[in-house]
Batch of 2 targets.
Target 1
Amino acid sequence: MGDKSSGMPSTLVDQPVVPGDVVLDVSTLTNRAIKLGGGLRQDADLIRVTKGGRLRFSKPNKYWVESSQMRYVPFVEDTVLGIVIDSKADNFLVDIKGPAIAFLPVLAFEGGTRRNIPKFEEGTLIYVRVVKANPGTNPELSCTDASGKAAGFGPLKDGFMLECSTGLSRMLLSSPTSPVLEEFGKKLSFEVAVGLNGRVWVNAESPSTVIVVSNAILKSESLSSTQQRIMAHKLLEKVH
Amino acid sequence: MEQRLANAWRMTVNEKKFIETALLSGLRIDGRNLYDYRKLTINFGREDGSSEVLLGQTRVMGFVTSQLVQPYRDRPNEGTLSVFTEFSPMADPSFEPGRPSESAVELGRVIDRGLRESRAVDMESLCVLAGRLVWAVRIDLHILDNGGNLVDTANIAALAALSTFRRPDCSLGGEDGQEVTVHPPDAREPLPLTIHHLPVAVTFAFLSSESIVVLDPTHQEEAVMGGRMTATLNTNGDICAIQKAGGEGVPQSVVMQCLRIAATKATDITSKIKEAVEAYNTERSLRKIKRHPVPNVSADVGRVKENKNLSFNLKDGDEFSGNQMPKISQLKLEIRGNDPQSDSVGGNTGIGSNMKGGITSKGGNTGNFLGGPSSWDPYSKGIDPNLLRSSLASRGVSVPSKKLEDLKREKHIISEAKTEVPSSDNKPTSLIINSEGGLPTNRKKTLKDAVKPKHKRKKRGSASTNGS
C-alpha cells in the first residue's frame, strides 16, 4: 500500500481509496515537486487520503481523489457556478453548494475599481473561480483568471440551470468531449457552462432545445457512452 | 444563521425567467405536457396499512394504525379518524424539525377534510360499544422527499394505506355483553376498513400572469407559481373538497376547467390505487397460504367458501394436519404390500380424499401429484367449485352425480398408483397409497374434528359443510 520506488506513480492510481490510506512516501522520491489535488494531505513525509473516492493521477505530477456527491467541497482553482445571495460593502455572498457561503470580493473583476462595482441582484448566476478554500473558513472567489483577465467568468444571462452531482460535472468536462454533449452538438446549437460544484447552465435559442439538452444531461449520469449516444439520437428524433 | 444560509435551496433569476418563457410555448422543464402527472408508483410494506408513494421525485410514506378509545360525546357510535403529518428535514432544506410549519398544517388539513367530510371511511362500523369504546384510526404521513406537489402524493399514500389496513377483530362477551375481547391476528383474521369511495386530490399551479395552469407542479414550478388550487374528487365526479389558499386571483371559467380536468385525473389515479391494492391483497393471501405448506389445503378449501377473502383458517388446518400425520405413518406399514386393498379402500372416498392424497404427495414430491390442479395451487386464480363440492362429498355429504365422476377419476388414479408401486419403492408413491388407504380412518377423524372446537362451527355459518 505504501511502497513507492522513486519516480514511479503510486500503485493506487485509479483504485478506490479511503481516508487514512497512504498514497506516497515523499522521502522515497527524487526531488520533484508533486501537486496535490482534492482529498489528499501531506503529513510530514507521507501523503495521506482525507476523502474517500478514486485516486487519480495526471502527468507529470498531479494527484487527486475523485468522488461523486451532491454536495461540493471547495478546492482551490476549481471553476464553479455560484448564486449571489447578498451584497455587502466588500464582498458578494455567493452560494456554491459547499458547507460555507463563499465571498466574492467586489474588486475581483477585470478592470475592477471602486467606481465600477457590478450590481448583482439576488439570484444571479455567476461563473467563478475558487481562490482560497480552507476547511472551516469561508472560501474566496474571483471572477478573473490567474493573470487578471475575465476569461469567461462573470454573470450568466438567460438559459437554465440544473443541479447534478460532482461526478457528472467532471464527466461533462472531461476530454474527449462527453458523448451526450457531442451528439447534441452535432445537430443543435447551444452553450453550456459546467461548474465543478455540480451545477450546469444550458442556453440556446429555443426553449425546447434547452429542455431536451438539460434532461438528457441529467439522465446521462448512469449511462455508458454508447447508451448516451443512443439516448441522444432518440431524443433528437423526437425534437425534429 | 450562516449555516442555514448555506443550506437553503435557491432559485436563480435565470430559472425563473426560463420556466415562464417555456410555459408560454406550452413546454414544461421536465418535458411533460401541461396536464400530465409524473410517474406514479405505489409500494406497500410488509405490515397492513403501510404504503410508500412516489410521484416523480416526491416520496411520501403513509401508516395507518388503530386503537380502542372512548368516542366523542356528541358522536357516541362513530369511530374517529385523524391525520398526522411529519415533514422530515431530509425532504427539503427548509423543513425544520419540531413544530409543524404552516404548509404542513395545511397539508394535513386538506387530506383530513377530503376523507372526513366526504365520509369516505365508514365511521359507524368502527363502533364496538356505543358510548364506551370505538376504534380510532390514525393516519401518519411522513414526507421523505419534496420534489413538488406534496398534497397529491400524501393523499394517495393515505388512501393506499387505508385500503390495505386491517384492524383486529373484536367480539363482545361476558355476562352482560360488555366485555370486549380483541383477537390477535393469528387467532382471527383482521378486518379491512369499509371505504365507500376514494377521494383523490389534484393540485393545479397558476403561473405567471398569462393564467397558465399546470397540473402536478414540480419543486421548481412551485417556487415560481403565483397561486395554487387543490381539488379533491372521486371517480363518481363528486367534489369532496377544494382548497385555494391565497395566491393570485383566478377567473371562474379557469376554476371550472380545472375541475373538469381533475375529474378525469381522479379516475386515472383511483384505478391505479385500486390495482396496486389488489396486487397487494393477492400477495398477502398468497403469503398466508405459503406459511403452512403442510398438506391441509383441502381442509381449508372447504372453509374457503365462507371466507370471501381467501384467507385461510390456518389454526384449524394445523390441528388437522397434526392429527393426520401419525395416522399416515401408521398406515404406511399396513398398506405397503397391498394393492388390492388400496383399490377397494380408495373406491368410494371421492375426489376430496384423493385430493388430500394428492396434496400429501405434493408436500413431498411434485412429480406425483394426482389430484385436481387448481385448489391447492397458490398461483391459480381461484377455487374450482366442482372440486370444492367433491371435497365436501368426501366427508360424507352425499353428492351422487359427482360420485360417478369421482369414481372414474379414482380408477385412473389407482391404476397409476398401481403401476408406480411395483416400479419403485420411493416415498412419494407410498405416500399416495398411504393417504388413500388411510382415508377411512381419516374420514372418521373428520367427523370428530367437525364436532370438536366450538369456534370453528361459529365461524362457518352453516354446520353442514363438515359433514356432521
Target 2
Amino acid sequence: MAPTPALRTRDLTKVYRSGEVEVHALRGVSLDLYPADLIVLLGPSGSGKSTLLNILGGLDTASGGEAWFGDLQLTGLDDRGLTRYRRAHVGFVFQFYNLIPSLTALENVALVTEIAERPMSPEEALRIVGLGERLHHFPAQLSGGEQQRVAIARAIAKRPGILLCDEPTGALDSRTGILVLEAIERIHAELGTTTVLITHNAVIADMTDRVLVMGDGRILEERHNTRRRRAAELSW
Amino acid sequence: MTPLNRKLYRDLWRLRGQVLAIALVIASGIAVLAMSLTSMEALTDTALAYYERYRFADVFARVERAPGYMADRIRALPGVQSVDTRVVKSAILDMPGFDEPVIGQLVSVPERATPPLNQLALRSGRLPRVGHPDEAILSEPFAEAHGLGPGGRFGAVINGNRRTLTVVGIALSPEFVYTIGPGALMPDDHRFGIVWLGEEALQAAFDLKGAFNQVSLSLLRGTDPELVIRRLDQMLARYGGVGAYARADQMSNWFLMNEIRQLESLAAILPTVFLAVAAFLTNMVLARLIAMERSEIGLLKAFGYTNATIAWHYVKFVIGVAVVGILIGWAAGYWFGLLNTRLYADFYRFPFLLFDPSPRAFVIAALVSVAAALAGTLGAVRAGVRIPPAEAMRPPSPPMFQRTRLGRSRLFAALDQPTRILLRQIGRYPVRSTLTSLGTGMAVAVLVSSLQWLDSINHLVDVYFQQAQAQDVTVGFATTKSSEVERDLGRLPGVVTTESMRAVAAKLRFGPREERQALQGVPAHQELSRVYDASGHALEMPPDGLVISTMLAEMLDVGIGDRITVEVLEGRRPVFEVPVAATFETYIGSPAYLDIRALNRLMHERPSVNSVHLRLDRNEMQDFYRELKAVPQVAWLSLKEAAVATFHDTLAKTLLIFIGFFVVFACTLAFGVTYNAARIALSERGRELATLRVLGFTRAEISYILLGEIGFLTLVALPLGCVLGYALGALILRAFKTELYRIPMAIQLETLGLAVLIILSATVFSAFLVRRRLDHLDLIAVLKTRE
Ligand SMILES: Nc1ncnc2c1ncn2[C@@H]1O[C@H](COP(=O)(O)OP(=O)(O)OP(=O)(O)O)[C@@H](O)[C@H]1O
Ligand SMILES: [Mg+2]
C-alpha cells in the first residue's frame, strides 16, 4: 500500500480578477507530496509557483479544486482555520527573510516556538542552521545569508509538517546561497520534513530526486534525478 | 498640472484619514483662537461704540448731598468736558407675582432734556413726564425677568413711602451693561434692577431739591483721570464724597473689560496647546512619508530636481494639511465666535451687537497655524532633502535595535516575544513615543482644565456660601443706623438670630500704596457671617488690629504687625493707624475686618450698624418677606439661597456650553494623536505584522503588538495628562485671577476620572478604526517585495 500523501491537490485552480482582466495563475494542478519528500519547483516567471506554494501553505485560497494536508481539507477553511493550520504545521522561508527587526536572532525563533505545540528550543534550531554563536544579534547586525538562516531556523523550530521555501537563495550570492541550502538539506535529513523549494536556478534542482516543472499554471513535467548531489557540491 | 503636484494631491488623498485627523486638531486650535479673537473684537467694538454713542462718562463720584451749583465748579476743573449730576438711591420693590423683596437702584433722568452723559438707550416706551412722579423706566433685563412692559405697575418703598410706579419705558444704559447688585457675586435680574425716575420726582422724594448725590464727568481727550479724581475728591469731601473713581473701576465696565482680558488669556493659552500638538502630528506624518519616499526623492534628484524643489514639494504638503484645518477652523471659529458673543449678550446687555469680525482674527489664526505646522516639520523636510541620491536608491537597512540593560534583565526575559517587540519599538523611538504620550496627555489636560471649572466653582460656593455663611438673609441700609435696628429686625416674623455689621468707606494706605477698601466692623466672635479662611477655619477679631485678606495684604504689600493708615471717607472722616493683626485667604474681593466696637470707637460714634445678617425659620419666610418690604431705608438685600441658585444657574448656562466645546476639542486632540500614531505604526510595521500573520499569529495577537504600543503610550499619557491638567488649570486660573475674585483650584478625583474616561473612549475609537485595517493586511504582497 502506498503511504498517505502529506499534501495532496486535485485540479487546483486560481484566478485573479482585477476589474475586467482575469489572470489564470493556476489552471488545474494535481499533486501528491509524501512525507519526507524534498521537491524542487522550477518554472519561468509567472508560471504560478508562488501561487501554488501560498495555497499549500494556507496563505491564499484557491478558486477551485481541492487541497489536503493529511486528512485536513485546506480548501474550504476560513481565515481562522488557515491561521491555525499555518501555526501548527507550516514553516515558511521567503526570499526577503522577513525577520522582525526589533527581535534578536534567538527571539525571532522564540517568536514561533512560543506558540507551537512541541517545538525544539530556539538555541537548537539556530545550531542546526549553524548560527549557535549569534543568538543575541539583531537582524541589522547579521549578513543576508545569516538572516536567511535565522529565517530557516524560525521556520523549522516548531517541527513543522511541511517546510515551504520560496526562492530562499534569490537574494544571496552563490557561496551564501549554498550555506542556506545546506541548512535546508540538513533539516530535511535530520527531521524528515516534507520540503518544497521554489527556485529559478536549475542547478539547485540537482539537490533532490523529484523536480516539478511548472508553466502557465500547470505542472508540465515531473523529473526524477538519478543522482542527488549534496548542496555543498553545487556551484553556479 | 506638474507631475509633482499631481503626486501631492494623491498623497493628500491617500493619507486623507490622517490629514483629516491633523486638520481637525489644527481646526480646534484655530476655532478657539478665532472664537476668542472674534468675541473679543465684537465685545470691544460693541462696547466702544455703545459708550461713544450714549456718552458713557469717564469719572464717577458719590456724595451724600451736594448743591446743584457744584456742577459748574466741577465743570471748571481742568480737563473736564461735561458734567452730569444725578440722584441715585435704592428702594425695596414689590414686584407683581414675586414674593421676595427686590432691590431697585433708582437713578434720576431729566424729564425735559437729554442728559449730557450716560444716556439711555430707550428700547420701548418713553421718558417720564414732568409732573408724573410715578412714571418709571425699567432696565430691559429686569423688565424681562419680571415680564413687565410699558403700562405695567409695581410697588416701591421710596424713602419710607409706599408708592405704585407705572412703567412707561424700557431702556438700557452704558452704565449698566453688566448689572450686579450690591453684595452680589452674579447678576440676578429677578432680585436687582435699575429703575429710572424723573429727576424732579426723585429729588423731591429724597429731599434733594436743587441738589445731587452722584456726579459723572467726561474728560477732554488725553486728560489723566487720576488728576481730576484728586481735585474732585478735595472738592467733594465736605459733601460726604466717598471717593471718585475712573471708568476702569466702574463696576459694569470693569466686568466687561475683565471678560475681554480673559478671552485674551484664553486666546493665548489653549490654541498654543492645539497647534503644538498639530505641529508634532504633521511632523510625524511627514517624516513617515519622506521615509517611504526615500527612493523617489533619490530618483528625482538623479533626474536633476533641485533640493529647493523637493523641499517645496513637502512644504506644500504641510501647507495643504494646514489649509484643510484652517478652513474648518475658520468656519467653526466664526460660528463659535457668534455663538459665544450671543451668549455674552445675555449677561452683557447692549442695545446693538457689532459682530463683524475683521479678517484680522482669521488671518492671525491661519498664519499662526501654518507657522506652527511648518516649524514642526522643518526637521523632517530638511532630513528628507539631505538624502544623497545614491543612498536614497538603496533600501534603508533594517532599523538598528540594541540590547539595553533592561533587555538583558530577568524581568525582560520573562516576557513573550510580542511584548518584547512592543517595548523595543517604544524604546527605539523614544522622542516620538514621548511626544505621542505627551499629545494624548495634552488632550487629558485640556479636558481636566475645562472640567475643573465645575469643581472650582462648587468649591468656591461651598466655602464662601455654605461654610463661611450661616445667615439666610443680609439686610443692608442706605445710611448708618443705631444698633437698635438689629433689635427691630430681630422682631420680624421668623427671625431666629441676628448679627450686625458696620462697613465704612475708607482709603487704606501703606507706604506709597493706597487702596480704596471698605472697613468692615464685625463682632469679635461671629455666629452668622464668619470671617473665614479658605483652608477651613473662622477667625476671631482681636480687640484692636485689622484682619485682612491676603489679597489686600498683597495689594498694599503689608505683613502682620505693619501699621496701615486708614482715611475714613464718611462721618467725621477720621484718619488713624491700625496694625495688621492677622491675614486670611478668601476667594472674593479683598476685604478688611476689625472688631465692630473698635471701629465705632475709632469713628467716634455710638454703636452703629449698616447691615444686619439674619437667620430665619424657613416656615415663616413668606411673612418675613412681606414685612421686610415695609422696612425703611433698606438699600440692599442678599438672600443666600437665591445667590447660590443664581450662581449655579448662570454657570449652567455658560460653563456647560463652554465645557461642551472643550470636550469636543479634547476628543479631537486625543483622536488625532492616537489615530496618527497607530496609522504610522501600521505603515512602518505592516510588513512585520503580515509576516507574523504568515507565521501563524492570529489577528488578535498582531493587534496586541500594534495597539498594545498605543495602549501602553496611552496608559502613560493618562496620569501624565492629569498632572499636565493641574498645571494647565493653574495657569488658566492664574490668568483669570482678579482683585475681585480668585477661582480656587479644587480638582476632584471624579473629574480626573471623567477626563480619563472620555479620552480613553476617543483613543479606543481611533484604535478601533485602525484595527479594522489590520484585518485587511495583504499577506502575500509583503512576501514579494523587499520593504
Ligand atoms: N495579486 C495578484 N493579482 C493579479 N494577478 C496576480 C496576483 N498575484 C499573482 N498574479 C499573477 O499570477 C500569475 C502567477 O504568479 P506567481 O507569483 O505564482 O508566479 P511565479 O511562478 O511565482 O513567478 P516568479 O518566478 O516571478 O516569482 C502571474 O501571471 C501573476 O501576474
Ligand atoms: Mg514567485
